[in-house]
From TrEMBL:
Identification of the protein by name: DUF1684 domain-containing protein
Superkingdom of this protein's organism: Bacteria
Length: 282
C-alpha cells in the first residue's frame, strides 16, 4: 500500500466518523427534553382572550404585543423569576421568542410569519419517547460537491411558504451557490446561516416525496473562502422539524431551489416504511 493510499483510507475513515458524529448531535438536539419532538401543540393568538389545554393562563395579542392573565392558582416562571396575575410580553420581533416554564413544561411565546404563537414543549410527549433516531442514505464522499458563492450586491427579501398552510416567511437571500452535477450547472439561493459567514440552503430535489421528505430539506454551508469557493456536503442535508411534528412552522424552499436531479444523500423521509429504509440505508 502506498503513502497516498494510506492517506486516502485515513481521510475516508475521518469522513465517515465526522458524519456519524454530526448525525448523533443532530438527533440529540431533536430529541432534547425541550426539543421539537417535545412540542405538544401550536396555538395562534388573537385579540380574544383564550385558554389552551396544558398551558396556564388566558392569552391574547394586540398592537401592544402578547399578554397573559393568570388566576390565583396559577404561576409560571420567566428567566428564573415567577410571574403572577397579569403580564405583558410586549411586541415580539419576527423569528424571536421567549420561554416561560410551568413545571417540566416549557411554553414558547414567539412570532412566526407575522403571527404571535404559543408552543408548549413537554418532555413526556409520546412523540419524543418513540423517536429512535433519524435515517439517512449511506454517507458518500462523492456527494461533497465544490461550489462557487456569488454574493448579491445587497440582500434580497425573499418570501417563501411554510409548513403551516397560509403562513409565509420572509428571508434575506444573500447570494447564489453554483455547482455542477450530473453534467448540469445548477444553482441554489442562499440565506444567512446560524453563525457569522455561514450560509443556509433550503431545497428539494427529485427524491422529494419518494425517499426524502416532500416539502423541504436543509443544508448548512460553511463560510466561503475569499474567492467564494466552498463545498456543499449533501450528506448533511437534514430534515427540518416539520418532518417530525405537525406543530412546526418551517419555511419552504424558494422556487429557484427545486433541483432537477436526485440528491441521494442526507436524511430520508421519517415516514418511510422500515423495509424501504433498510434497503436504502443498509
Amino acid at each position: 500500500m502506498t503513502i497516498d493510499q494510506i492517506t486516502e483510507d485515513a481521510e475516508t475513515v475521518d469522513f465517515h466518523r465526522d458524519w456519524q458524529q454530526w448525525r448523533l448531535e443532530h438527533d440529540r438536539a431533536l430529541a432534547a427534553p425541550h426539543g421539537f419532538l417535545a412540542v405538544t401543540g401550536l396555538h395562534f393568538l388573537t385579540a380574544d382572550p383564550t385558554s389552551f389545554a396544558g398551558v396556564p393562563g388566558v392569552w391574547r395579542t394586540d398592537s401592544a404585543g402578547v399578554h397573559v392573565d393568570l388566576d390565583e392558582t396559577e404561576t409560571v416562571t420567566l428567566e428564573g423569576r415567577p410571574i403572577f396575575g397579569h403580564h405583558d410580553f410586549g411586541v415580539l420581533a419576527e423569528r424571536s421568542g421567549v420561554v416561560v416554564e410551568s413545571g417540566d413544561v416549557h411554553i414558547e411565546v414567539a412570532k412566526r410569519g407575522g403571527f404571535d404563537i404559543l408552543r408548549p414543549r413537554d418532555p413526556a410527549n409520546p412523540r419524543r419517547a418513540a423517536f429512535s433516531g433519524s435515517t439517512a442514505f449511506p454517507a458518500d464522499p462523492d456527494w461533497v460537491v465544490p461550489a462557487l458563492f456569488a454574493p448579491f450586491i445587497k440582500p434580497r427579501p425573499t418570501t417563501v411558504g411554510a409548513a403551516v398552510e397560509g403562513l409565509e416567511h420572509v428571508y434575506d437571500a444573500v447570494g447564489e451557490l453554483t455547482f455542477t452535477r450530473a453534467g448540469k450547472t445548477l444553482s441554489l439561493v442562499a440565506f444567512p446561516g446560524h453563525t457569522d459567514g455561514e450560509l443556509l440552503v433550503l431545497f428539494t430535489d427529485e427524491t422529494a416525496g419518494v425517499t426524502t421528505y416532500p416539502a423541504v430539506r436543509s443544508l448548512s454551508v460553511p463560510a466561503p473562502d475569499a474567492d467564494g469557493e466552498v463545498r456543499l456536503d449533501f450528506n448533511r442535508a437534514s430534515n427540518l422539524p416539520c418532518a417530525h411534528t405537525p406543530y412546526a412552522t418551517c419555511p419552504l424552499p424558494p422556487i429557484e431551489n427545486r433541483l432537477p436531479i436526485a440528491v441521494t444523500a442526507g436524511e430520508l423521509d421519517p415516514s418511510l416504511d422500515a423495509e424501504i429504509v433498510e434497503r436504502i440505508a443498509g
